[in-house]
Design goal:
Blueprint: H1 8-18, E1 25-28, E2 31-34, H2 37-40, E3 53-56, H3 66-69, E4 71-74, E5 77-80, E6 88-89, E7 92-93, E8 109-112, E9 115-119, H4 123-127, H5 130-145, H6 149-155, H7 161-164, E10 168-174
Antiparallel strand pairs: 1-2, 3-5, 4-5, 6-7, 8-9, 9-10
The protein binds iron/sulfur cluster (SF4) (2 copies).
Length: about 180
């Protein structure tokens, strides 16, 4: 999500210093459990990009409290932008798992144009084997593929594929929904 002028080598050095040992990353119960997140918080904090990162909410996640939990692009879409995410507290995300946008439970896998990509700047992406992310992406594809097609369309981010090349790896997995 975060995008700035620093290159991949900068982040590799940063993450290697911050994470001298490998941590757990696994796809469990439809969520990518990533033990790097609690110390990292890179993708929940203030973003360098001008363009907000949209995080669509499902109908069951929307209530009167939604505007208190998120900066919103519209009534159904949370925004991650230069302010960071409103749900980020000093101890990490302050929301119950069920209230977090689906995108948060997949990151650093990202659904763009209904296709799965890997955000390469995440420390887990950089420090863990690519093959394990490919395996997790297949499971994420199967989980997302069981959702109604309208929900898949809603949570999928629209981007020009040319904009993704620098920081996102195309995993070659399309998601249609049912
Ligand atoms: S960049 Fe990766 S490790 Fe860091 S908070 Fe985001 S998903 Fe977690
Ligand atoms: S909802 Fe939580 S996990 Fe998702 S971006 Fe916001 S702080 Fe991070």
């Amino acid at each position: 999500m975060n995008s700035d002028v620093k290159d991949e080598a900068y982040y590799r050095k940063l993450w290697t210093g911050m994470f001298p040992s490998r941590l757990k990353v696994a796809f469990e119960n439809g969520v990518l459990v990533n033990a790097y997140c609690s110390r990292c918080r890179f993708c929940c904090g203030p973003q360098a990009e001008e363009r907000p990162f949209p995080m669509a909410l499902l109908d069951r996640q929307i209530s009167a409290r939604t505007p208190d939990d998120f900066y919103l692009l519209d009534s159904r879409t949370a925004s991650l932008d230069r302010r960071g995410c409103k749900a980020l507290g000093p101890g990490g995300c302050r929301l119950e798992r069920e209230l977090r946008p689906l995108a948060c439970g997949l990151f650093p896998l990202v659904l763009v144009n209904r296709r799965l990509y890997l955000y390469r700047i995440c420390p887990a992406s950089m420090l863990e084997p690519l093959e394990s992310f490919r395996e997790m992406a297949v499971r994420a594809r199967d989980m997302l593929g069981a959702l109604p097609a309208a929900d898949v369309e809603r949570i999928s981010i629209a981007r020009d594929p040319g904009d993704l090349k620098a920081k996102y790896l195309d995993l070659g997995l399309d998601v249609a929904g049912r």
